[in-house]
Amino acid sequence: MNARTGPLDAVVFGVDIQSGDVRGDAPSYALVVFDGEDIERDVVSYRKLRRRVEEERPAILATDNMYELAEDKDALVHLLGSLPDETSLVQVTGAEQPEPLSRVASRHGVPYGKKPIKEAEAAARLAAANVGQEVTAFTDRTEVKVARGRSTGGGGGWSEDRYTRRIHGAVRKRAREVESELDAAGLEYDRDATEKYGGFSNCVFTVEARPSDIPVSTERSGDTRIEIERVRRDGIEFRPLAKRRDHVLVGVDPGTTTAVAVVGLDGEVLDLLSTRTADTSEVIEWVVERGRPVVVAADVTPMPETVEKLRRSFDAAGWTPERDLPVDEKQHRTREEGYDNDHERDALAAALSAYDDHEDQFDRVAAKVPPRQEVGPVIARVLGGEESVETVLADLADDDGDSDGGGTEHTERELTAEEKRIKRLEARVERLEGHVDDLKATIERKDEQLAEYEAELSEARREERREARERREVTRLERENDRLERELDEERERVEDLEGKLERLKALWKLDHSNFADVAEKKAGLVPVKVVEQFTTGAIEAADEAFGLAEDDVVLFRDASGAGRSTAQRLVEVGPRVVLRNGQLSNVADEVLFEHEVPVAPADLVTVQEVDELAVAREAEVEEAIADWEARAAERRRQQSAEMVDQIISEHRAGEGD
Questions:
Q1: Which residues pair with 296 in a beta bridge?
Q2: Contact yes or no for 175/119 (Cβ under 8 A)
Q3: Which residue blocks in 196-319 are alpha helix, DSSP H?
Q4: Phi–psi pair at 302, nearest 5 degrees
Q5: E strands, 157-313, where?
Q6: What's the pTM value of the predicted model, to 2 decimals?
Q7: Residues 468-520: tens digit of each pLDDT
Q8: Collapsed DSSP state (helix, strand, coil) of residue 290
Q9: Which of 59, 138, 146, 188 would be 10's cystine partner, CB 3.0–4.6 Å?
């Protein structure tokens, strides 16, 4: 709503229908463009009028009848939604029950003529003087919707999941950018995002601002789009161009800190002020912005001089208590109201006490005032001039007769709270009835679509049954294929096992039938040797798997270093006849083998000859190596026994010394 109280300094378009009718095909309009000084007059078509409004964006589009621009309420709402954000539609003759333009122009001293161009000029001049009601169907809130710019039904070469995820991710990214822009602009908003696979399907920002104040515009770009729409009201509403100043009661508490309380004629607390710096003129200006005082009250007797000056400046009635209001009484009277300090409490107590004292009088006056006449002016004259209600009403009736020339037109008045509520409910009912009609049409359309979908569904079910039969057959064949593959795997494993056995049999056959021509002694003097690459558990297991390790085998380690206790224990479990080593055994492994009396000899004591995978050594050399180990083992045992005896003797002597 425009809050200015002086003439507008922007461009105003005044319009009046020249010929035809807005319900027809080609209405024409008298157009007056007024900027406060210069006037431009023209006759334009409806299309040209709309184009000029869009291009020049006037502050006000003024008319004496809004239905000269729209054929019905729906068309009016559409017109209001299509006007530029900077442009307001103003009906200069009032709200729901407008006055004749001639009366309004005469009351405000604006030239008037019956020709359309003169009426258009009168409308422009009246709107420029802040006369009239702004017509609005929208709030000052705006919905900014960030949504998908494409359907997620398919993405060409993309898989459907990846395509959908990409679009939803783009919507989420754009929504975050919009949110950042709203935050940077310092705007208040609520966000409602619908999360979907990969991001958002849409995100709606309800912003406490008009579209012109929002740093985002309607756009459609690739995977996303932005839609901007003002939030609808429940029906059409009217707001005065100039701020309305109702009649009020004012309580004042003067002093170093001046406090002022404003109370309506219904006893409602409207506003409070406490200040140390404002002078009398600033206090008066603050009160004027909030209403027209009919009573100025103080909480002490007699009325302080400062309060008396304020009363005289408003030409209002004064009120003081019979005696100074006690603190406990002031606290009790203001207990249900909010205030910041004792000064505001005292001013508020004065205003409320004045209201209590006049409440019955207000009710009596209101009961005598006709329903379509404002009560405030009557109360102001009754209190200020000590006139009777009948005298004031008769005087006001005479004034209306003079200004109207004896006509029967009513005077625009403020609607009561109950009438405003009824008006809002009627507008809501009308809107809901229209919505019901739309829903009924939608239901009929949906029924037709439903019949089509049912036919498609029947066909789809037949196709689904056929595909189900195919899937069952495919599943049966896949199970059969899996069974055959398992049997094939089992046969392959059997073949591998048999091949392993065959290789071992070949190795044994070679051992029994090989002709070692390069060995000087006869075959009877040879013994097979099992060669193991390293003295590790893994190498022992691999050798056992490949050619088997058995008790009394001659085992040759190509690298005997690094064996631990568990590895040596594994070799003990085999029970070899002798272990031939290359390299040194670890102390741990040597100890384990010695404890279990497993002979260990250096590999260079025995001549080992290898042919293919087999190795043999001379029996005599093996026996010599074993005999050598036994001699060394006997000496080792003797040394261990001697060391043990020495230790026992030492421990015995140590015991005797104690």
A1: 250, 318
A2: no
A3: 280-288, 305-314
A4: -75, 175
A5: 189-196, 199-207, 219-221, 224-240, 247-253, 258-264, 269-275, 292-297
A6: 0.42
A7: 999 999 999 999 999 999 999 999 999 988 887 777 666 655 554 554 444 44
A8: coil
A9: 59
